[in-house]
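Problem: given the chain below (233 residues), write out its structure.
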Amino acid sequence: MPHPRRLAFAALALPFALLLAFSARAQVSPEIVKDSLGEWLIATDDGAPGCRVTLLPEKVGALYAARPAADCAARDKRLGQVSAWSPEDGIRLLDAKKRVVLAFREDETTLMKTLPDEGPTSMLVRAKPGVDRAPHAPALFGTWVLRRPDGPPLCEVTLLDKPPPGGEESFALTVGTCDASVKRLRLASWRVEGFELMLSGTGDGSLALVPTAQGFEKAEREGGKPLVMVRKT
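Solution.
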């Protein structure tokens, strides 16, 4: 039979081991902190103007300092109170009393956003010059031009306010005369997906676009030659 003192030691050692394991899991690598630094845009999925916040490397106790832009308080009072951030379990923004203002986690596409049960969905993306909000379908209806940067038009695309044949989760689109590089996609529908505009074809063709100050540009993950989409004037 084990000695009582050994049993007591084992009983104490187990919680201590669990605490060490928890602490190890809670450790965040310096690379993650470094990659998170800089200016971000917080934008809701309703197309409202967003708020920029800068994540800083300076420590505030166990947290890191954060600085919201001057206009954040006018757009969202809570965001104007952000003073710190934490890389624990995604990115959390906290106020001076260490209360969580917003907590962002990666979804299956690696987009950082709030959970559905936390009110309107907010997204956290790297800030870009001239981009102050997320794409919103009602603001995108109309005719656009696809072209290479500073190049001639390749295709006219009209984003319609009605579903495509046989589909209810997206909108229809029509195309004009198109260059072969775009025509092969057989574009027929579009939708906003997170912080991207997705153009989809009747086959496997698709095109992911991200917002710019002038309109949209092809998402980096698409590869190939650069492509932009701007309003037809």
